């Protein structure tokens, strides 16, 4: 491991802060990055060989990640690499505390672990903000791995038992344990080879999307169905923003709008938390229908563009018997 002193770290940080590229240099840099986009996975794998087994100061430094989005770096603040991509994570910090309040009865009577999902969404926002502010490899790993753990927690806690693979024999304890082990292994391997996390995310995201589709096909509550349709539509728009920012940076930069990744952050939160709400509804409706779950909206229940949450009518705490 290369010896790193405090002075060398400080000097490196000062060089980054003061040697900021102008807009013309930034556009040239982005163009070069787009031409070499196909080598990003290779760069990640090469970095993995150095990362595996140890985390050096190099991986904490600004700009150590091979991933750089379309927005110009250090154009607004000398301390924040991608300003819009950083502050656009604000919904991940403001939304979950309010969701904890709206789901207080659900957490008290049905499943207390629902609040773990909201806390993990806060961690996603903090990790993403840290990554885009520094463009460090550690920030990239934290950003991607926290998303993996949100998928894991949501599926483990709220996937209806009838969708469990037969090997688990409808035991949520076994299912949760297996999902946790998978996430721990994927996290460890991602620190060795960061590109592995993309495959782990697909391994969970594809089944989650399929389960959402299956449940929406049989749900009888029209409000729940409409929320699922809106959620899917917003998700598609978010993915389009992500692809455009990544693949067509030159075109958007020529229009002076290299901020689609910031819109991805906003739209993916607007899509992600309702998906968690839907899974929470499917769970209690499937396993505790006597609690009479109802999808409601804040601040007005007749305004379906408000904040969705699950209301229950059950005065006995649910023992999940996992």
- Radius of gyration equals 22 Å
Number of strands: 2
Number of helices: 13
Biggest sheet, strands in spatial order? 1-2
Helical content stands at 55-70%
- The ordered H/E elements are HHHHHHHHHHHHHEE
Shape label:
globular
Characterise the protein shown here.
The chain has 322 residues and is mainly alpha-helical. The chain is built from 13 helices and two strands. The chain has a two-stranded antiparallel ribbon with strand order 1-2. The chain is globular, with a radius of gyration of 22 Å. Residues 1-49 and 317-322 have low confidence and may be disordered.
Structure described in brief:
The chain has 322 residues and is mainly alpha-helical.
Task: Using brief descriptors, characterize the structure shown.
single chain; about 325 residues; mainly alpha; two-stranded antiparallel ribbon; about 5% strand; disordered C terminus
Helix and strand arrangement:
Elements: H1 6-18, H2 23-35, H3 40-51, H4 83-87, H5 90-102, H6 104-109, H7 114-134, H8 137-158, H9 172-192, H10 196-218, H11 222-247, H12 249-254, H13 260-287, E1 294-298, E2 307-311
Antiparallel strand pairs: 1-2
